[in-house]
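Cross-check.
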Amino acid sequence: MADALMEQVRAAFEGGQRLHIRGGGTKDWYGEAPTGGTTPVLDTRGHAGIVAYDPSELVVTARCGTPLAELEVTLAANGQMLACEPPHFGPGATIGGCVAAGLSGPRRASAGSIRDFVLGAKLLNGRGQHLAFGGQVIKNVAGYDVSRLLAGSLGILGVITEVSLKVVPMPVAEATLRFDGIAQHEALERLNRWAGQPLPVSASAWADDTLHLRLSGAAAAIRAARHALGGDPLDAADAAAFWRELREQSAPFFAGDQPLWRMSVPSAVPPLEPDGGLPAAQLLEWGGALRWVRSAQPADVLRAAAREAGGHATLFRRGRSAAAQGAQPGCFAPLEPALLRIHQRLKAEFDPAGVFNHGRLYPGL
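Predicted model, tokenized:
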């Protein structure tokens, strides 16, 4: 199948054609739509399968079209998992799309992002050349870390045909605590105070004056933390459902019609209130460092608020009500000129003819 993908890319390069890289299509809505009119799809789903997996080495290598759910089942059978809990957003999610989107779930603040666990990758560049970067071992000194550069690139640099990921053991024990009647400023104060203590916190979420905290680790550590923190414990099944709905954005908060903004700011920043206050609901994750905001306010207002707080804002989902509003802002915060030049040089090096996902990340890339 890799040969077939290579031939399709070479034909596009030689014929001046563009291609839209697509696996299960579960994240087609994320980012910008590819520019250039109707674009043929380069379907990666046929290039699937786990290439290598030795649980004792804590590394798995899989082809791009491998279903994410299939990989997770294999890991779970060996008591292991993908540390950052990447979201699926649909049953067809693939491991290639998981890395290309670069998204992480509730455990990201304690475990790291998907980028942190990429050890190596194989890539089809815009000339149809099959390149290999990194390796399949945790201690890797194989030159520049190009493989991690692919995480979050949305396919603009090439087709990730294969990826090696570090995996971790599943927690021995977990518990979720619920704290009711907690205002946002109090939730932020608690989360930042707890972050400075030796507590086995693996995820947090606040919305509607309710704070949820997940503890993961040794059973003794969980018991000690529960005794120190208080709160009301959730039933294991209810806890699993809560974090799954948060990870997959199937919780009621994410069902609104207004645009959904993903605001990344330092965790200690007080509640964000641009333009005198946000009229829409907010949901906090990652110890307060990730703030989901439902708002129809102008993009420059929200981005200015995030920038003043030392972070940035991404238009994660445009929302159904945004369809009739005419010209829309870009999904990702505009790049500084120096960073834009770096992106342009990388695109020119890997995909000089602009074959892949043109405009999917930033205009002109």
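The chain has a mean pLDDT of 92. The radius of gyration is 21 Å. Passed to J.P. for a second look.
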